[in-house]
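Give me structure tokens for this 341-residue protein.
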Amino acid sequence: MKKNILVTGGAGYIGSITILELIRNTDFDIISIDNFLNSSPKTFQRIKNITGRDIPNYNVDLRDLKALKEIFQNHKIDGIIHFAALKSVPESLIKPHWYYDNNLNSQLNIMKCCEDFGVEYLIFSSSCSVYGEVQELPVDENTVLSPPKCPYAHTKKIGEEILAFWSVQQKIHTIALRYFNPVGADPSGLLGEDPRNTPTNLVPVITGSAIGNLPPVKVFGTDYPTRDGSCIRDYVHVNDIADAHIKALLYLFKHKNFSYFDIINLGTGSGVTVLEMIHAFEKVTQQKLNFVLSERRDGDVAQIYSNPQKAKDLIQWVPKYDVHQMMETAWKWQLNLKNEN
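Here you go.
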């Protein structure tokens, strides 16, 4: 019998690409919940254009427990991939209460439905931001967490801590995936990041600026203790991130003796500066990017990149895309998005 997989935030950037990869690589039936707070209903038509599949989506706020329970009553859910959350570092500093309310109460309601409807498998979308300002690099899953730099990171840290207790007590198999910086778009060029609000992540800011939709790119901070003074991040292609979620879920289905809760980093193991990312874009597109050097931005850590060994050992996940492919697919998507509009 086919398994039913619920993807929360299914119209979002990583959620939609994960749905795409689920269709391509599994025989699961897929249900989405997304209230389009920072995503577009067009996403599901794009998925259909690529795969021919209609994905049912419920336009429900996960904080509405009654409405959420009705979905679980209508579908026998076997596993959940929980993406839905607010994710902007700068916005979380301006609206902390909104972030705590949305991210934590949504998660608590998903957990409640797991209990009430017998869902035994959960993949939680976490973030490398939980590490804070680390003293040693690369970070692995045993790296001691420093104080969070922003409310967004704090919600993910709290979310993990809640799951660590709850999963064991309720005997629900849970993996928290701490991913680093998802970038790029589906290689088809037909699906990628399309936020309703102005993007704050580096790559869509670069492509949006290059195509004329956004002002010149701001490089926040040029005096960090890095190769060129700009921040270092571990950029991972979004299709690789999606693949890891599927591998983690399949791992849980297969390993009944799993100890109920674990954490896995998703990164390439290589740090790339902001300026290096800009130059990679220029090399791929053969065009100069208009950017300006600016002051540091609150909430940013100087540098962080991962040790991805655990992901390789436990779920056999190895990233396939390099930095230039990340930029190439992101630009292809940006051009298609312009033509679509």
